[in-house]
Design goal:
The chain has nine helices and six strands. It is α/β, with parallel strands linked by helices.
């Protein structure tokens, strides 16, 4: 098994090969086994990213690597409930929450681009407040974990459990890619995992307040994000 010291010496091509091989071999593995592999191989150069919709992946990772870094993007547009969930996760779980912020405050962005950029150019707003801060925040890591699931939307249907993030040249781990919402709910209930209160108030997916609404019956979990804009992803995952 490749160890952390060896991983640091691998080229991008070798890391890609490592990720693709692991994706094939771990396709049928449990989330705990996938995270066990990731933490053994990457050690402190592995982190979890969380939108604080729930703390399922953070909880799973903390069992594999106590004190694991959990990276949160504070866009300046979050619901108070999301910030409260972040603070609660930091207080009660065996993780190290790291909060990333954009280079500009909302007021500074408004001054340069005009107010409510999220309404006029949501792609640019996401780039400035999510994509760029994450790229900068991940520079010290070789691998990162997400909570992506294949059942969330058609655009996520082919998410590998371990894959290669070409844009950032990093290994991307999605340990619950094969889970359903029922699996998530069962894990939350069994382990008392923290979840965002908005999930109990009609929100199936929680993002920035100006661009998130409750979902309607029969809609997929991502339908409440950027509703009516044709946009389905913030840019962090493709």
């Amino acid at each position: 098994m490749t160890d952390t010291l060896q991983v640091e010496k691998l080229t991008s091509d070798e890391l890609r090969e490592l990720a693709e091989k692991a994706g094939r071999e771990l396709e049928d593995a449990s989330a705990a086994e996938i995270l066990g592999w990731a933490t053994r191989v990457f050690g402190p150069r592995f982190c979890v990213t969380s939108s604080m919709e729930d703390a399922v992946v953070a909880h799973l990772a903390s069992r594999a690597l106590p004190g694991v870094d959990v990276v949160f993007l504070d866009t300046g547009y979050h619901f108070p409930e999301t910030i409260g969930t972040r603070d609660a996760v930091d207080a009660v779980m065996d993780v190290n929450v790291i909060t990333l912020t954009p280079r500009q405050t909302v007021a500074e962005q408004d001054a340069e681009y005009g107010p409510k950029l999220h309404d006029r150019d949501p792609d640019l707003c996401c780039k400035l407040r999510k994509v760029k801060p994450l790229e900068e925040g991940l520079t010290s890591y070789t691998a990162w974990a997400t909570g992506l699931r294949r059942d969330e939307s058609p655009s996520r249907a082919n998410t590998p459990v371990v894959g290669w993030d070409e844009k950032r040249q990093k290994v991307k781990v999605s340990p619950i890619a094969r889970w359903t919402q029922d699996d998530v709910d069962a894990y939350v209930a069994e382990h008392g995992v923290l979840t965002n209160p908005l999930l109990m108030d009609g929100y199936a997916s929680v993002g920035c307040a100006p661009c998130t609404r409750r979902v309607l019956e029969g809609e997929d979990a991502r339908a409440g994000r950027w509703a009516g804009s044709g946009k389905t992803e913030c840019g962090l995952h493709g």
